[in-house]
Amino acid sequence: MIQSLPASSASSRRRFISRKRIAMMIPLALFSGAVFLFFMPFNSWGQSSNSLDLSHRIHEIEIVAEFPHDPDAFTQGLLYAGNDTLFESTGLYGKSSVRKVDLRTGKVEVIEKMGNSYFGEGLTLLGERLFQVAWLTNTGFTYDIRDLSKVKPFKHHMKDGWGLATDGEVLFGSDGTSTLYRMDPRTMKVTNKHTVRYNGYEVRYLNELEYINKEVWANVWQSDCIARISPKDGSLLGWILLPKLRQGLLKSGHGGIDVLNGIAWDSDKQRLFVTGKLWPKLYQIKLKQASAKSGKYMEQQCLSLSNIKG
Asked: What Pfam families does the annotation carry (predicted)?
């Protein structure tokens, strides 16, 4: 025969069990939250990072491989098109071009020279057409990817033509300011634009662009820095610091090189390539977490002094 507990005793027992269950659930909830944060994608850690500390999102690079690159190419736009093939836009008046390049050898397989009055800038590929902009003009050009023959010119509505990239549907553009433009590739009209900022300061001189894993990556002119930008709202997602590449070339006796410029992404094999203006090498790189001192370097080198001083 089972005796029933007194009402007061049963009530106390229920309260004890309830407290015990709550005590057991607290560490479980904390553990689940930690796991969620650990596996959360990089670009979802705060959709607006204008006033956040990005120190944990600063990366340096490791060299995976080196490839030959035309040392006379004043690289302004770069993209990977599969089968170890690159397309490149070069600048300088009288020397500007669009070219098809073999990644492994650096050999220029096909070249289409621009008129002497144009200074070539950013380049991107959408479907079977290459889109190229030019410096100090609102005129750009499209090319047939098969033979680089000019298809037709176009007019864009950015203040200038510096960089181009695409997500396969729209075009993203830069004009040397802190503005990231979104454009309709059929009309070249601006459908949206955002000012890119870091801790309230504008990130100016956005140059060559590349679309990588739902982010827009931008070379920052006259620096060894790449800014990672959200195309949704222009918020800054992180920095990549690459001074070791230019410094290594200078130490090797390549004194005639210009700045870092040119980002290409192999989405199939997840390979990242970079080069610079008049660089004799193109690099495949991978990212690694930057050192604790990288934040100071970033503010000194990736942002202009006028930005830091307000």
From this structure: Glu_cyclase_2
Which residues are 125's β-sheet partners?
A: 130
- Reported pTM: 0.81
60, 294 in Cβ contact below 8 A? yes
Please give the average pLDDT of every successive group of 10 residues along the chain, which has 310 residues.
44 49 51 45 40 69 98 98 98 98 98 97 97 97 96 96 98 98 97 94 95 98 96 95 97 96 98 98 96 84 56
**pLDDT score, position 297:** 85
Structure tokens belonging to residue 114:
């621009």
Edge-to-edge strand ranges of the sheet holding 97-102: 75-80, 85-90, 97-102, 108-113
Give me 91's structure tokens: 């600048």
The residues near 210 (Cβ < 8 Å, ≥ 6 apart) are 78, 79, 165, 216, 217, 263, 264, 265
Return the sign of the alpha-carbon dihedral for residues 174, 179, 185, 190: negative
Rounded CA Rg of the chain: 25
Look at the block and give the residue holding tokens 């307000």: 310
Q: 96, 111 in Cβ contact below 8 A?
A: no
User: Which of helix, strand or coil describes residue 252?
Assistant: coil
Task: Walk across the sheet containing 236-241 and list its strands.
Answer: 206-212, 215-220, 225-229, 236-241, 58-68, 281-289, 271-276, 260-266
Distance CA 170, CA 176 (A): 20
The two tokens of residue 30 are: 């904390």
Burial, 173: exposed, middle or buried (Cβ in 10 Å; 0-12, 13-18, 19+)? buried
Distance CA 182, CA 201 (A): 21
Write out the two tokens for 205.
């001189």
H helices within 155-282, ranges in order? Answer: 243-251
**Positive or negative: CA dihedral 107, 109, 115, 118:** negative
Instruction: Copy the structure tokens of residue 169.
Output: 């549907």
